[in-house]
Amino acid sequence: MTPLSHRAPLLLAMGLLPILATTACSAAGPDTTTAAQAAPAATSTDQRPFTAAEVSRFDQPWAMTFLPDGSLLVTEKRGKLQHLDLASGQKHEITGVPKVAYGGQGGFGDVILHPDFARNNVVYVSYAEEGTLDTRGAAVARATLALNADGGGALKDLKVIWRQTPKVSGQGHYGHRLAFGPDGKLWISSSERQKFDPAQDMSGNLGKIIRLNDDGSVPADNPFASQGGVAAQVWSLGHRNVLGIAFDANGKLWAQEMGPAGGDELNLIQRGANYGYPIVSNGDHYDGRPIPDHDTRPEFAAPKVTWNPVISPAGLMFYNGTLFPQWKGSAFIGGLSSTSLVRVAFDGENAREAERFNMGERIREVEQGPDGALWLLEDGSKARLLKLTPKA
Description:
Elements: H1 8-13, E1 50-58, E2 61-66, E3 72-76, E4 80-84, E5 91-95, E6 108-113, H2 117-120, E7 122-130, E8 136-147, E9 153-163, E10 175-180, E11 186-190, E12 208-212, E13 234-237, E14 241-247, E15 253-258, E16 264-268, E17 305-307, E18 313-318, E19 331-335, E20 340-347, E21 350-358, E22 363-368, E23 374-378, E24 383-390
Parallel strand pairs: 5-9
Antiparallel strand pairs: 1-24, 2-3, 3-4, 4-5, 6-7, 7-8, 8-9, 10-11, 11-12, 12-13, 14-15, 15-16, 16-17, 18-19, 19-20, 20-21, 22-23, 23-24
């Protein structure tokens, strides 16, 4: 599929340029799968196949990742990186974190390990950073994690390897989810910063899925490498607000993204594909004006699942453990406005929502632990870290 560049005048003429929504899409809103696929009713607490135990609490946590020794790194949106020893319950702050632009949806973001972390101790972090003239944008940095004997430590030799281009005003839709693929490449979700048209503009990298080498350089086999500049970073375009990316057992990349008023999506990310935003969406503008659905423009890649009312997706992971054998191969998505944990089942490249568990709180992040347990981070201040294990 070919990219559509420099579409702002055309979209304005078509009446598709929306009024900037000042309400963050993760806020409680219309809680949405498609008309063709009704969402299952949320499972009540006493019917859930797991027990949720509180392990710790954090201040506005955003992401987590397990270290090889079983301990946990957790980012807090205000700009802290915490190291949690699960055996002792002790929590220590890691210093050397970059300065973040905190506010709105902005702040400290994701944290992941280099594929060869056991040898090099390299981690990657994402965050919102200040620009000039009241602008901001996401950035990704790599650093060496140096832990000390008491569980504290520091990020050393931190180097920024990628930035959103251009930096713009506002405090929403950074995205900046990170993942390493089976190919050893670094993948980054770059949301469109509530500016809409940049998702179709190849002169910038907003509203795109980015693929880089581990040092931040651009792979020569990227689909738009011949265009040079930031376009060379791009793997796919036409995205809105991507807050979860993950690879399945077959090495395919999936991404969930928040729709506007309705139309949250789960997408199979394909090389060079255009996912259509803001030209098409299965949701509408916040001011009520309709956006044409995906089925009106078959040249754009359509989502495998859409939610209407929305779930406000946050976090995405594929389960491959043995603690919940019935869920092997399923994906799990945290729900913000839906205060839920959503399980997605797959049949090849087709997907459907299979179960929804009411968690009673906004779920910001979901990960699989070393023993196959599911781990959830709630959203907001005094947010709980929950460990989900099978009921006896």
